[in-house]
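Standup notes, protein team

Yesterday: finished cleaning the Sphingomonas kaistensis set.
Today: Phosphoserine phosphatase structure.
Blockers: none.

Input for Phosphoserine phosphatase:
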Amino acid sequence: MFIATLIAAGRLGDSDLARAAEIAGGGEPRWIDEGDAADLLLGPVEDWRDLRDRLEAGLPGVDVVVQPAETREKRLFVADMDSTMIGQECIDELADFAGKKKEIAAVTERAMQGEIDFEEALHARVAALNGLGVGCLERCRTERVTHNDGARTLVQTMRARGAATLLVTGGFHDFADPLAAELGFEEVRANHLESMYGHLTGRVTGAIVDAAAKARSLVELRDQLGLAKGEVLAIGDGANDAPMIEEAGLGVSFHGKPKLEAIAAARIRHNDLTALLWAQGIPRKEWAAG
């Protein structure tokens, strides 16, 4: 049995549910939260990606998640940080303190689009920060970084329902560790910026958290917890999240780049992060306080 979840917070109507059933060739509509999200209960689906694409095309402004019913609520949540759980790319904002935001942001965009190697791009961008005072890290974090809407509600709700949580990023511990504490993530994987005498050296230390390392972190924790692939939810926005997304039962592109959208099981384009709670069938009355 499959479920197609339709999500359009404050904008979903009975006519949308009827249209979805028409596109799917049947199904039983059922509200999760009236006006916000609903399920279309289906039988076996031969090509769920094709159905998802047709529903997205036929319901503009509605996010659609098509998945098997039996593994709907997840036991492990793995998330990217920059432009996913937060609204910024931390290295771009940090580069602004060095007067180099425009040039660094251009490299970041190319890396996220998958046009250049992530590790190469990381080293080039970090090198541009050589000599920047470490005090700028905290200033950048407190002055520039903001949670994406629904971030804390999503993490806290999944934690309260027994799911394990992992924040994994090609960014830096200086940003990821405080963010994890604020949102409620239990574990963090990130890169380390090297500093000496109160200034950044323009280098990273230790193993690089790149696309392969992100996927490996998910698989290692999934195996450690004894979970099946179908019990895992992963979310990201860039091409470097693709291997991680493919290791999850529900891999989600959140306002993502084309290369990630092409392989993701679900694409959140119109709603905030709480869409992932509706995707799991969790009504608003059961959400943790954000």
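Follow-up from PR in the comments: The chain is about 40% helix and 25% strand.
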